[in-house]
Amino acid sequence: MKYKDLVYIVLLTFTSFLTWAIDGVGPDQVTKSGMVTIEWDNPEDYTDVKAVGGKQGAYEIRVFKALTDNLAKVAQQTLKPGLTLELIVTDLDLAGDVQSTFGATPNDIRVVKPVYPPRITFSYSVLEGDKVMMVGDEKLTDLNFMNGLKKPNEKSLSYENALLKSWLVTKVEPHLP
Questions:
Q1: What top-level branch of life does the organism fall under (predicted)?
Q2: CA distance 136 to 76
Q3: pLDDT at 68
């Protein structure tokens, strides 16, 4: 094998690794923030976490981290100290629908209308140390999502964050000792 061929193979391997690293960390990803840990189970099978521009894997990582960080802020205010919240998300459908601009712009656009509500399916556990305080499965959706927020465009993922906050405050917190 020639030296040039070896260098080419090494560069090709490195480039493949770099692309994989930027696109994500495999089929399942785990994000952690404060007292919240979320495992994103097979995100490639999710209904809609489509990037409108840029790399799909990088977009997913940003979305997953943002949702985890926001849920952690709510959990810190809602759950008593010493509790942890663990979720395994099996499906996510962001509010809106990605539609092509047919070349009018370099990127597609996400159109948010009442017919495209946010949805998330997951199982969860609330733990105190190793002791399980609460477990369950959820399929959340909010068909009235566009009427619930006063300033929906103030922050990205505001509809999804509101959906998770409402679940934590109304379904989890009241049932904990």
A1: Bacteria
A2: 20
A3: 97
Give the chain's length: 177
Residue 111: its pLDDT value, please? 83
Domain range list for the chain = 25-175
Contact 146, 163 (CB under 8 A): no
The whole-angstrom separation of Cα 140 and Cα 160 is 10
Q: Where are the beta strands (DSSP E) in the chain?
A: 29-33, 36-40, 83-93, 97-99, 109-111, 119-128, 131-141
Q: What are the φ and ψ backbone dihedral angles of 72, each rounded to 5 degrees?
A: -65, -40
Q: What is d(CA 127, CA 150) in angstroms, rounded to the nearest whole number?
A: 33
Tell me which residue of 95, 108, 97 sits closest to 67, measured CA to CA. Answer: 95
Residue of 88, 91, 61, 85 lying closest to 71 (CA atoms): 85
Determine phi and psi for 141, rounding to 5 degrees.
-155, 155
Specify the residue for token string 């996400």: 110
